[in-house]
Each structure stands twice: as structure tokens, then as C-alpha cells.
Amino acid sequence: MSITSMGGRLPDDPRSERAYSGSSSANQVIPKITTASLRQLKQRREPITCLTAYDYATARLVDEAGIEMILVGDSLAQTMLGYENTLSITMDEMLHHVKAVRRGVKRALLLADMPYGSYQLNDGEALQNATRFVKEGGAEVVKVEGGEKRADLIRRIIDAEIPVCGHIGLTPQSVNVMGGYKVQGKELNGIEQLMRDAVALDRAGVACMVLEGIPREVAAMITAEVNAPTIGIGAGPECDGQVLVFHDLVNLTFAPPAKFVRRYGDAAGVISRAAREFRADVKSAQYPADEESYHLPKETKAALDGVLARKRAMGR
Ligand code: KIV
Asked: Is the CB of residue 243 below 6 angstroms from any atom belonging to ligand 1?
């Protein structure tokens, strides 16, 4: 497509950045977050925020809260679908949720997590699956777990015009190889491997990289070393940004939280209370009240009363 056929917009036309006018002021223009915005935020040392979302309503609320990146993480396997780990979730299940989130997100950068088995088998299949996330799901970036060993694949995905978010450290899809969910990079050779992984991802041209479950000191070294913004989860405060799983943020998980989780709300409490109160109200005939019921129009009511009275009079 030539520049002149881009709907009359030049690439740096400010209209290209207009996403929506927020709910606070009709004239407020909130710029769309792009992969370029992430680099600018890193350069300005302005912390980047990222949350996971898996459905329309949550995505919309998170987007309207001003979070810059929204990740449809494969953690949805556990948080939304009740699987034991992330290994069994499929491309089709992921895509179903990416589409729902897409409909709720206007401003944030939308990332989709490549599930286990969607990119490990061969590059052709990996490219096909990454393309599905963009074409069918409307994702803007795909996330791939693994460092050095994924660099060539990541280059191929980027060559296909799809930005990639790397993910190193504690990579949940490697749970069986790691022998559990363990903090990585606690020994010198582990630190060396993590540095090599981070540099390989950076050289491959990732738009950003998630650093999960690594010591703060190591995350700080990586963040200083690479050009790509680092987004930490259990990786300390020196990362360029922070990501949390939405269900951890609002207490919708059923296991004790990891050390790095901070609860910002109690959705479990709100939902449980609402369900219990609804049950109690129905059982005690407190719900629905008359003002929560629909009523017949006056004329229909009068006509109906007439019919019923005639029936009664005729002994029926
Ligand atoms: O799947 C996920 O939610 C993730 C984040 C924890 C980064 O990969």
C-alpha cells in the first residue's frame, strides 16, 4: 500500500494516534499506544504498566484505566478455564479470548500469548499461528517464551511484520523442564544464560521482553543492557515496566499469591457477597420487589380484570 492510499493519512498524522475521547472529557485526545510508544517510555524512564485481560468487560475497564499494555496471557488457562497449568490451552481457545479483548480495547497495545505447542514444532506453523492472532484476533504483538533458542524464530515472525514480545526467566511453559515454578538466575551460570537470552532477544528486534521470576539485581542488569523495554513480573522495581495477572490483582485466584503479588481489590469478596445476598433475598421472597417487576398498562389490566370477573360470574 502506498502512503497516498493509507486513507489519506501520512504515518505521523496526529489523527492516526487518536484512539478515543475517554469518558472524562469529550475533547481529550488520548494517544494510541504503539510499540514505538514503549521505546519512548523507556527513554523517558516513565514506568510502563501492563495487565492481563481475557474478556470484553475487564479489557474495557483496564483500557479505560490507562494501562498501556494489555496481554491476553496463556495464564487464562488457569485463571479463566481452570486448567492446572498453561500447557493444555490451544490456539483456538486463546483466539476466542483475544477477539473478546480486542472488542474492549481502544487505546492500549494488545498482546497475545503464543500457547504451548503453537510455535515449538516448526517455524511455518509458528508463523501461521502468529498471523492468526493478528488477522483473526486483532492482536498487535505476539509473545513467545524463551531466549537465545527462539531468536531465529522471532526474527522470522518480525520479518512477517508482526512485533514480538520476548519472555525469559521463569517461563511457565517450561514448567516440566524447570522442575516447577522456580526463580531463575540465582547462580552465576544462570545469570550468564539470562544475559545471553536478553541480548539475543534484543538483537532479534523484540518490541519488549517480559522478565519473570528473576532476582532484582539481574533484572536491573538486563534492563540497563538492552534497548527493548523490560516488563517485570517478580523481577523487582528496576524493570522498565510491570505486569501482573489481573486475577492476582483483584483476588480472583484460589491459591496463596506469589511473593510479588500485591492485591489491589477483593473481587472474590464482592462476588461471593453478591451471590449470597441474592440467594438469601430470593429464598426469603425479598427479590424481586414490585418496583423491580414489569406491569400491565392500565387499560389492559382493566380489560383483563373484566374478563376474569365475567369468568368468575359464569362459574368458570
Ligand atoms: O500468561 C501470562 O499471564 C503471562 C504474564 C505473567 C506475563 O505470561
From this structure: yes
What pLDDT, in 10s, does the model give residues 81-97?
Answer: 999 999 999 999 999 99
Q: How far apart are the first and last CA of the chain?
A: 77
Percentage with pLDDT > 90 across the chain: 90
d(CA 119, CA 131): 12
| Average pLDDT along the chain | 93
Which pLDDT band holds residue 30 (cuts at 50, 70, 90)?
A: confident
Task: Judge if the beta carbon of residue 194 lies within 6 A of ligand 1.
Answer: no
Task: Give the angle subtended at the CA of 62 by the CAs of 58 and 64, to the nearest 5°.
Answer: 115
For atom 8 of ligand 1, the residue with the nearest CA is: 73
- Specify which residues 233 forms β-bridges with: 212
Ligand 1 atom nearest residue 244's Cα: 6
**CATH classification number, 3-271, choose in 3.20.20.60, 3.40.50.150, 3.20.20.70, 1.10.4160.10:** 3.20.20.60
Name residues whose C-beta falls within 8 Å of residue 71's C-beta, 6 or more positions apart in sequence: 50, 51, 52, 53, 111, 112, 113, 143, 165, 243
Confidence of residue 15 (pLDDT cuts 50, 70, 90): very low
Which listed residue (148, 187, 212, 217) is catalytic?
212
C-beta atoms surrounding 189 within 10 Å:
8
Quote the CA–CA distance of 310 and 316 in Å, as a whole number: 9
Q: Is 277 a catalytic residue?
A: no
- Average pLDDT of span 111-123: 98
Residue 247: all three cell numbers together: 486475577
